[in-house]
Structure formats: structure tokens, C-alpha cells
Protein 1
Amino acid sequence: MESRVMLNENIYWIGKIDDRDVPFHRLTLTKGTTYNSYLLMAEKPTVIDTVDISFGREFIENLKSLIDLDRIEYIVINHTEPDHSGGLGALAARAKKAIIVCTEPAVNELKEMYKLHDRKFLVVKDGDTLDIGGKTLRFIETPYLHTEETMVTYCEEDKILFPCDIFSTHAANYKYFNDLAEEDITEDFITYYKLIMHPHRRYVREMIGKIKDLEIDMIAPSHGFIIRQDVNKFIEIYDEMSKNTDKDKKAVIVYSAMGGNTRKIAEILQQGFEESGINVEVMNIKKFSKEEVLEKIKEADAVLFGSSTRYGDMIGKLEDILKELKNMNLEGKVAAAFGSYGWSGEAIEVIQDYINTTTMKALNTSEIIKSTGMTDIHFPLRIRFSPKEEDIKKIKRAAIFTSELILAP
Ligand code: FEO
């Protein structure tokens, strides 16, 4: 064990300090990072999160120096990314009776990633509690911070929040606690927030709302420093930085529909923008002149074009508008294509081709995955027939993502 580090009586840090230049989403973390895992030595011993998959074996050896692994009753996985769940396969194989505690969307991911199909899971929801004998864990779902399945765990007796990626810093350190750090961690803390959390700031706001009434003496995240001094200051940084400061951002949704399905997509996008505080205008091109539409496009920060597909092409006069775009100065705007289709959905791809010829930033799935690691944002937004429940979620996510993009400083 790198050292025996205690947060409180019977709560141990059991993580790994990674002081390499750590590759991360096509960047390099030059200060390294840590993967913090915690052992709660309650009557029912519980591990919260694990370490990066590269250090699974070392993690097990370290943990064995503190506890007979057969005694572990629960393994809480707040977030499934392999820098935190990476030790789960090795741990579950040795802690044979341990029940894995996670949110519903995490179950299949963990089963597939670590071959845990026969394992017992305890699925928890917002506000559920778990008595681990002398300590009570409360679970709070924090979806999209920064992936769908994430939650945070709060230990009621010790007043410690275990938020995994949230409130982290990427800095390898051998001091563990912010009050012992050799230099102020605030700058690294803010850099981490901007890089990982800010693109999801709408969900940061929801998370802040959920934790605001908790008494938190210590924040034990899964990267970098454990915060036990000025705890509220660090929560306030998230609170302040996630507030919308720009109320004047605009989106315009321009569409041409055959039946009602593409119109429905436009309406759901509209809701997503409105919920994100964006002024949004929806224009069915049947009802507006080309000049009126082009004027709105000039004023907007985000422009979404949609069409149904008929005879393998767009319908109505949408193409007349798209043809104008390459001659306009639209720099600084983002644009995307959407539409409902029944067979191949060519119109959506043709719109995307037009967008690609403009000076607007064209949203597409590949770029989003490469730049953010998010796999649940889909552009062009292709919906087969009428939007179903899963589609509605996908459409809303697309609007929220676009909103965050234009709101980002
Ligand atoms: Fe630190 Fe999202 O993993």
C-alpha cells in the first residue's frame, strides 16, 4: 500500500497515485492523476469505486493488506469508466460474496465489461439508502456527470461525499488532502471542472440542487485531492461556474415536413433548448419566405435544419435556403441536420453535406466522440418514423448538448 491513509475512523483511501504523463481524451495530464478508491470498514465492509484497469492487480494486493477480501459485502460503483471500475473484475473474483451496488444504467455495462453476468447486483435509485452496519450510505443519481449512469454516494454518519469524477482534480500527489497540499489546488480544480464538467453544466445545476441540503464535512472524489478544508468554497465554484451568464443565446430550427414526424422532432428540440435557457424559434418553411429564414439564421448561434425524406431527397423549398448558406459569413455558429425517415433517410445526409460547405461548425457524432468522449449525442439526428421514448431522450440530449456548446464561454 502506498501508505495507510485514513479519512475518518474506519474509512481508508485505497487508491493509486499515477505520476506518469497520463494520456487522457487525446490530451496529456502532465501533472498525472490519482485513482481514489475507499474502504469503509463497517460491519459490512464496503469498497467505493476501484482504480484504473492498469493497476487492478496492485489494487488487490494493497487491499489485501487491510482486509480479508472474502469479508467485503458491497462494492459501490459510482461511475463505470475503467479508470474507476477497472479493478472491479479482479476484486469481484476474489470478494466472492460482495454485492455490486450501482444505478440501473450501469448494470449491463459492468456485466459486459467485467463478465459479471452471474453476479448479484443491488440497483439503487435517487435517495435510496443502504445500512452497512454502523454507517449509512445514501445514493444520489447524477446522470451525465459525466456519463449517463453516474451517481454519488454520501456517508451520513461521517458526512463524507464520495462523488467519483465530480469535484476531482487531475494531480498526482502524495499528500492526499487539500489542506496538506504544497500549493493551492484551486486552479487545478477549476481546470478539471472546465474540462470534464462544464460541458454538462445543466446537470451540474441539478447535482448542486440535490446535494445542497447535505451536511458535507469532506469530499472524497476519485481523482486528486480529498477536500476537507473549505469544502463549501469548492462546491460554490461548481455552483457559480455552472450558472448561465449569457441569456441572449439563440437557436433557430428550420424544417420541412411531409407528415408530422419531422415536426415532432423539431418540437422536442425546441423543448430541449428552452429547458436550457436558449431563445429558440421554430420555422416551418412552408410558412416563411426564404429571406425571413435567412435573417433568423444570421441572428442565431445554433441552426438546425430538418427534413423528411421523399424520393431519396429533401422536400419543399429547404434546398433553396441551404444553397444560400455557403455565400454567407456564418462563422461562430454551430449547425446540425435532423429528420424523420422510413427507409434510408437521404435528406438528412444531403442537409449535412450542405452544412459542411458553410463556415458554421457542423455537429457530427464522430467529432463529438473524439472531442468529448460522449457517445450518446447523435448528429446528424436520424429518427426512424415517429419519435419513441428512447428517441425523445436522444433528441433532448442533442438539444441540451448544442445549448451547452453555444453557452460555453
Ligand atoms: Fe475519471 Fe469519467 O472517469
Protein 2
Amino acid sequence: MDTIRIHGGRTLSGAIPIAGAKNAALPLMAASLLTDQALHLVNLPRLADIGSMRKLLSTHGVAIENGDASGEVSFNAAAVADTTAPYDLVRRMRASVLVLAPLLARFGRARVSLPGGCAIGTRPIDLHLAALSRLGADIDLADGYVEARAPGGLTGADFEFPAVSVGATENAMMGASLARGETVLRNAAREPEVVDLGRCLIAMGAKIEGLGGGTLQIQGVDRLHGARHSVIPDRIEAGSYAIAAAMTGGDVTLEGADPVALEALIDALRRSGVAIEVSATGLRVRAPGGKTGGMELVTRPYPGFPTDLQAQMMSLTAIAAGTSRITETIFENRFMHVPELLRMGADIRVAGATALIRGVARLKGAEVMATDLRASVSLILAALVAEGETVVNRVYHLDRGYERIEAKLAACGADIERTPAPS
Ligand code: EPZ
């Protein structure tokens, strides 16, 4: 397993190109199953999770070809033969569950392994199954698999999500696109990645209204056709680097970042003293002369503060001038970065879903362990400002969501290098 070594204390300055959004690309790739024509996706990021989804789609029989431009891939599901998503693939990436509705809607059946939990929580899929049942699917759970059947196709319905769920909204929207009649989805997720999927489905012939709001109205159609769609920029990658710039006292331009999708973060950073300019090319982040101030943060579904930037903000508050309080309301176990930050000298106390952070003068480099995707990047950020050397182990977590992180940070002046595991 590779490790990353960082010597802290460098100020970041320069430009970082922002890649396509992982959490938009994954549902967009699954949407290729909804048609027998080619779906061309552009601006796909080069990430481990994208590779996992390609592998899963190939097992279903989707023909996948790299395009000429970088990040361009075409997917053709004309010859899908197998509607089973096997445990061995689904357990590696829970977003695999996004093939459930497309397989069910197009072929009338799907057998998808239950994803199982992960480091940040049990992460059930009951909301996905409740929505698809409402659309007329017969759902059984057997041998750790979801067996879903809709031999006569899905039927439009009015369904209210008891809780906001990004993935369940995405599955329901894909299922409803090919259902008979109208579907209304209430308390739907509003994340930019959900909107991006909706826009791609519309380009494929779906009839969806209300994207970006909490209620989606979908008129089912008999079939969807191919399309060409460009993936939106990754707001979580951009946000992670914005926080890095703020922490190191730097001046960094995030090329291609979408300021609208980052409003909650921009607001929090500005309130703590960080200067942020929106430009035609993206976002320019300049740290205050001194330290950022303490803050109060509560994670919420979009447009609230994103849970996927919670760990990164905890690293920022660990060295802020003052006390901060961060409350995680989306996942039940998303403070795995705390023990590692404590080993770097942070002053953090956790009580249930709330962490109280007292800013310290400096963190100290240490050998630390990555546990999940966003926790691992929070350790990289802490290492950038820590005294001395930090070694981050198990960086395969990072590769799931950050393309070439060491190259992007080194290009802005960080003293960072990746050492391959001894073979
Ligand atoms: C998506 O996960 C993202 N992943 C996550 O990003 C992100 O943290 C999350 O949305 C919230 O924004 C992808 O898009 C691939 P949810 P998802 O369904 O869809 C509970 C990252 O780091 N829930 O909105 O799985 C669930 O346990 C990843 O890039 C149910 O109880 O999230 C959680 O507590 C991590 N039953 C809450 O709802 C369900 O059927 C929100 O989950 C579904 C979810």
C-alpha cells in the first residue's frame, strides 16, 4: 500500500485544475444502462471509483470505449446480458447500487448485492427500495442480494422520501424516467450531482421537471436514446483545495470550480476571514494575513454545508484562532479523522454528533492512518501545515476521490511525495 510523505510549513500558491465530479460521474455511468444507444460522457475523472463502475458495467455486458479527448468515454448497453451486480464488486463501492433502477426499468429485473456498510456508517438502502416498490417493483431480499422484478415495467407514482437521500433520489429518477405515467418525487435530494444526472436524462429523452428543487415531476417515456454529456466539476475536490489554500496562508486559483455549487463553503470560509474571488476561470482563494477565526458548522443536505467537506473543515479549525463546533447530521460515524488529528496535536472533543475544536498554534507531523476517503484528505491538509514530517498510510482511500493529489499540491509548492509500497 502506497504512502504519502509531507513536510509541512509551505504556503500554497498557483493554480489547481478541478476534475469532473466523482459523485456525478458514477450515476451518469449507471444511466447508460437505460438505453440501447451510446451514451458519451466527457470530463470523467481518473479515479479508482470510476474504474470500479466501469468494471461493474462491463460485467453486465456494457461496451465501453475510450474517446479521443481525455476523460471522454462512450458506454453502449445494447447487448446487456447479465442483470446481476455481484457482491465482490458492490462491496468495494456502494455507488454500485445505482445500477438497480436502470436494470429494473429497462429489463424488468435486477439482482444487486446489498452494499454493506463502510467506515462512515451502516448506509442502508431502504429508501432506494421503498421508492422502487412504490413504482411497482416486487422487491425481495435473499442471500445478501436485492431481487427486484417488474416484468410489466414500472408504473409512475407519487412518493415522498421520509429522509433526503442522494442515491435513492437518483435511483428513483432513473426508474421513473422509463415508468408508465407520471411520477412525483417529494423531499428529493437537490445536490448538483442529482441535477447533473437529471440534465443528462433529459438529453436522453426523459421528461423531468423541478431539478434542483425538492419536488421532481417525471413523465415516463417508452425508451431513452443516446446523448453526449459533460460531467460537472467536482465541488468536493475544489472545496478540499480551497481549504488547503486557507490553511497554508496561500493564494490558489481553482480552475473550473463552480462557485454556485460551493456557496455554503464559500460563506463559511469568508466568515472566518478568507478572501474568495469568483472569476471567469473559477475561484481564487486567498488566506487572511493571520489565522482564520473559529466557526460553527452543521452539515446538511444541499444547499446546506456538505458532509463531504466536514473532515477537511475540521483540519482548518484545528489551527484556527479560537474555538469551533462542528455537528455531523448526515452520517452516524464520520469523525474517524479525529483520533488521527489528535495524534498530530489537535485539541478536539467529540460528544455524540458534535465535535468541539480548540485551535492550537501548530500541529505536529506524525505517522497517521487514512480510514475513509474524506478523512484521508483531512490528514493531508493537516500535514501541509504541521511541523515536520507526516506519513499518511493507506492512501488507496484517497485514490477513490482525488486525481493526482500529490502532483496538484506539489505544483503549488507543497513538499509532498508518494512512495509506492515495497513490492
Ligand atoms: C452520496 O452518498 C455521496 N456518494 C456521498 O459521498 C455523500 O456523502 C452523500 O451522498 C451525502 O451527500 C455518491 O454520490 C456516490 P445518501 P449516498 O443516500 O447517496 C442514509 C464521498 O465521500 N440513508 O444521501 O449513499 C445514509 O445512511 C461520498 O464522495 C438511509 O438511511 O448518501 C446517510 O446517513 C461519501 N437509507 C443519509 O441517509 C437509504 O436508503 C444520507 O445518505 C439511503 C441513505
